[in-house]
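Pinned message: reference record for Tyrosinase copper-binding domain-containing protein
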Amino acid sequence: MLPADARVRACRLQAPGPERAAPDAAAGAEYMSKYERAIVLMKALPRTDPRSFYQQANIHCAYCTGAYRQVGHPELPVQIHFSWLFFPYHRAYVYFFERIAGKLLGDPGFALPFWSWDVPEGMRMPPAFANSSSPLYDPLRNARHAPPKLVDLDFTGAEKNYTDEQQIMHNLRIMNKQMISSVSLASLFLGQPFHAGESDKPGPGTMEMYPHNTLHVWSGDISRPNNEDMGDNYSAGRDPLFYAHHANIDRLWEAWRHINNGTFHVDFTDHDWLNSSFLFYDEEAHLVRITVHDILDIRKLRYAYDGVGLPWLNARPPTTPNINTIKGGTLPGFIRFPISLNVALTVEVRRPHVLQNRPKKIIKEEVLVVENIETNGTNIIKFDVFVNAREYEKVEPSGREMAGSFVCLKHNDMDGSLTGKGVNTTMRVALDEILEDLGAKEDDNVTDFSSKTWKC
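Predicted structure (tokens):
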């Protein structure tokens, strides 16, 4: 039974500075103190109470470490990352967390704040979370990333020497690639289909890999064995920042749907997706089951997002001047797979003629598929895929030639041991806009470069 009260996630969290939105668009001290109080009340509950902060964090842990098994297939685990379950699961998770908080506060209209790290005024960790005397503070974070440090949506463990203006520019261009250039299809944005009886982790969507995963790594304590808390799925829910981060991920799902007035981006209609379900505890500590279909319309869930601009809409990445695009050069030799990405790899990919000859209305998107990406789960992994750029080192993270990035968090057991759970998945990269901008739409082949793997 959904509550009759309406809630507005009206709080774009931002560091102190000029107000660039409507007066009620940024979270004030009173609002943030309410969230602080909710965390205090949740932590005060007995650990055995499913509404406690401890158990709420464990819910996320259980769904991402293989604790649950598929109905009718007990040999197969359920993993809510790396597939089309990522967005709906986290929407439902944050929704019930929000309802529990409202119940404990005696305020059924309470709405979680969201951290809008995708817009310039939100690209710093909100000050309330960096205050060591606040219940929202978590000591297991990267101390170097406290305000006024800007988020780096391409963070790879090392700090970049960008000015604030440069970092904001790169962040906006990365957002454009992940929200506009690469996501014309639901399978590219939401993730690959995951049907009952199939192995988990069929392939993540663009936003899950990068920058969702990147923000987890950026926030977590990189000096810890597992980059806790935010940097590992098993521990991420222990940080109050997690819920503000995922409220923004949920907001971006809504933004993706409504780009071009909702006529371009459409969710899956597959019944297996719509009928997929998750178990949560509600504000009365009752175990409830909710399906993907139940949570697609946030108006029925009675919350909304206060207006935040989308400055990345027109931040189309530029091509990189003065780099070798290989046209007319020597093509790479034969490569035998599988290979380890401990060095950069160059591969020629021939384009099927059918993609060049059929009308555009028939071919919705040309997609590069990187199959059977394997990691043992004990490291944070990142590699980048470039198109037609032999001198890929010259390409900035937001350069046009960088077609996509694969980012994978560590995948450990529920106890946080260093025993990793293996990952075998795929990566998909949309090519239409990239080939157009590179002047390669009529080429018979493209050359892909994968930079060597960064590990942590």
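Pinned by admin. Summary line: The radius of gyration is 22 Å.
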